[in-house]
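Pinned message: reference record for Sugar ABC transporter permease
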Amino acid sequence: MSSSATPSLPVVTARPESWWHRHQASITPLLLLLPALAAFSLFVLWPIASSLWLSLHDWDGISERRFIGFDNYRELFDDRVFWTSIVNNIWWLLAFMLAPALGLAIALFLNQSVFGIRLVKSLFFFPFVISQVVVGLVFAWFYNPQYGLLNEVLRAFGIEGISPLDSETGATFAVIVAGLWPQIAYCMILYLAGLAAMNPEVIEAARMDGAKGWRLFWHAVLPQLRPATFIAVVVSVIGALRSFDLVAIMTAGGPYSSSTVLAYYMYEQTFLSVRYGYGAAVAAVLFLIMNVYIAFFLWRMLRREQA
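Predicted structure (C-alpha cells):
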C-alpha cells in the first residue's frame, strides 16, 4: 500500500509594520487639529506677535519704522491719560462682576412656568441682541440734560437736572451703567441654559435631606451652575477690559479724557494721533492685564475643582 505524502503548508512571513501603522494613534489627532492650529496661528498668534513687535518701534503708518526698544513703554509710565485709562478699566472690571450675580438672580426669577413668561424672557433678552452702538445712543439720549428721560424723572420729584456725561467724575460710571445693561442680559442667558441642564434628582435628594431656601440654592443649585458661572465671569472680564464701543459713542473719552479706557486710548493714539507703535504698546499692556486676570481666575477654579 502506497503512503500519501503530507502536503506542506506555505510559510507566511510577517511583513514589518510601516512607520504610519506604528505611529497612527499618535499622529491622527495632530492631523485633525492641524487646520484649526493653522487658522489659530494665522489669525491670533501672528497678529499678537506683530503687535508686540510693532510696540518696539516708532511708526506713523507711512514712513519707515524706527526701532526704539522699550521707549514706548517708558513713556506710558509717565502718561497721565494712560493711568486714568487703567483706573477706569478697573472700575469697569469691578462693576462688571455684578453682571453674573444679577444675571443669575434674573434667571432664577424667569425659570418658572407661568403665563406670559416667554414674553418677559424676550424683554430681558432684548438688550443682548441689539448693537452696542444702539445701546450707546439710547443711553446718551437717556442722560441728555435737556430732553433726557433721566432728568424728566428727577424734575418730577423736584430734583435739579444733571448731566452725567459732562462730569469728569460721573461720566465713567454713566457709561458703565450702559455697558451693564446688555452684559446682565448675556449672563442671564447663560444661567437660563445652565438651569435647564440641571439634574433634577440632585434637587429632589437635597429636598429629601431637608435642604430648602438658601441652603438648597447654595449646596444643590449653585454647584451645578459652575460651568455657566465660569463662562459668565470670563466673558464679563473680557467685556470690561475691551470696552470701546460705548466710550466712543457716548463720551469719546471725555470730558478731558476722564472716561477713556485702554481700548479707546489705543484707538486714539493709533488712528487719531497716528502713533502706531505707541498704540501697540497700549494694546500690549491691555493684553497682559487681561491674560493675568483670566489666568488667575482659571488657577482659582482648578484649585477649587481639585479640593
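Pinned by admin. Summary line: Residues 19-54 form the longest helix (36 residues).
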